[in-house]
Amino acid sequence: MTGKRPDQLVEYNEELEMWMVYGYPEAIEVLTQPKLFSNDGWRLVNVEVEEWVKEGDFAQMDPPQHRKLRGLVDFAFTPKLVANLQPRVDEVVHELIDELEHRDSFDMVADFANPLPVAVISDMLGVPKSDRDLFKGWMHGLLDDAGELDSPDDIRDQEATMDDQFGLLREMRDYWAEQAAERRRQPREDLLSHLVHAEFEGERLSDGAVFNIANRMLINGHHTTELLIGNTVLCLTEFPEQAARVRADRSLVPALIEESLRFLSPLAGVMRVSTTEVEVAGQLIPKDQMVMAWCGAANRDGRVFTDPDTFDAARSPNAHLGFGRGVHFCMGRRLARLEAKSATNILLDRLPKLRTDPADPPKFGHVVDATGVARLPVLNG
C-alpha cells in the first residue's frame, strides 16, 4: 500500500510543467498562504469558457471573495448542525446493511460506501431520492476522465473531451436551475432553499452561482466520504491486528478514521498557482507556475509521523492533511467523519465476519488527486 518515496521534497516536472511538493511542512506552506499560492486554476489555462462555469465556485477563489461565498455554505456544517444529522446517518447505514446482511458477497463501494454519502448530501440539499441515480451518472462522467495530470498545452488540446465535460455541466446546470426555481416559488427547510434566498454582497445568488455551489457540495460531499469509508474498511480487513484492537475498544474508532485519512488519503493532491516568485525547501518557484501539494506523500513524511508506513489505529497525535489545510480546508470534514464513524461502528456490529474476497482483489480509482478503492469485493460470513 505504499508508493515510491520521492528523491526530493520539491521538484519540477518538465513534462507536466508543474512543481511537485511532497514534504509535510512544505505542503503546509503551499496550502496556507493564498497570497503566494492561488487557488484560481483558470488563470493558467487559456481556455475560453462561459461565465456560468466559474460563477460562484468558491473552490476556485481566493480571499476575500472565497470567504464570503463559502460562508453561505459553512453554516450547514457547524458542529451542532452536523451532530443533529447523526440519527439520519445511522438510519441510512442500517437501511443499506438491511439490503446486504443476507448476501454472501457484495461490492463495499458500489453497494455501501457510494450510496451512503449520496443519500445524506441529497437530503441536505433537498433533492428527491429518485434523482440519486442522476447524481451517480454525473459523478462517473466527471471523474472517469480525471485519471492523469495534463500539462497546460495538453489541456488546451483536449477540445473534444472538454466539450463533453461542458455538455455534462450544462445538463447539471439545467437541473439545478429547475430546482432553484422551485425553491424560489416554495422554500423548504433545506440547504438549496437557503442558497436561493441568501444574499451575497447585497444581491441574491445567480442560478450559475447556485449551480456551482450545489455541484461542489455534491461532488466533494460524496466522493471524499465514499473513498474514506471504502479505505477504512480495506484497512480493517488488511490489518487484522488493528481491527481486533478497535473491536475490543470502540473508543478507538475516531482515531481509526484519522489514521485511515492519513494512511490512504482521499485528498491525495491539491493544485495551486504561484502568484509571485517564492522559495520552498530551497527550490525557487517562479511566478505563475502550477504547484501540486501532494497531501498523500506529506502524510507519510517521517519528519512528522513516526513509522509513517505503519497503520496504527491508535496513532496520536495525527495532524494529517487528509482534508487539506488552510482556507480551503474541506468544508464537509465533520460530516465525512460522522458518516465514517457511524458506518464503521454499525458494520462492526452487524457484519462482524466481513472480509475482502481473496479471489477478487480490490481495485483503486484512477482519479489523480484522490486515493481510494473504486471497487472492494467483500465476503460476508
Structural summary, described in words:
- Helices cover 48% and strands 12% of the residues.
- It is α+β, with helices and mostly antiparallel strands and 381 residues long.
- The protein has one domain (10-351): Cytochrome P450 (Cytochrome p450), CATH 1.10.630.10.
- Strands 1-2-10-7-3 form a 5-stranded mixed sheet, with helices on one face.
- Strand 12 (363-364) and strand 13 (373-375) form a beta hairpin.
- Helix 4 packs across helix 15.
- The two termini are 26 Å apart.
- The relative contact order is 0.19.
Helix content: 40-55%
**Average pLDDT reading:** 90
Strand order of the largest sheet: 1-2-10-7-3
Shape: globular
Structure summarized in a few sentences:
This protein has 381 residues and is an alpha+beta fold. The protein has helices at residues 24-31, 65-74, 79-83, 86-100, 108-113, 115-125, 132-143, 152-157, 159-185, 191-197, 207-238, 240-248, 253-263, 295-298, 333-350; strands at residues 10-13, 18-21, 37-38, 105-107, 199-200, 203-204, 270-274, 278-280, 283-285, 290-293, 354-356, 363-364, 373-375, 377-380.
Task: Looking at this protein, list some descriptive labels.
globular, 381 residues, Cytochrome p450, five-stranded mixed β-sheet, three-stranded antiparallel β-sheet, alpha+beta
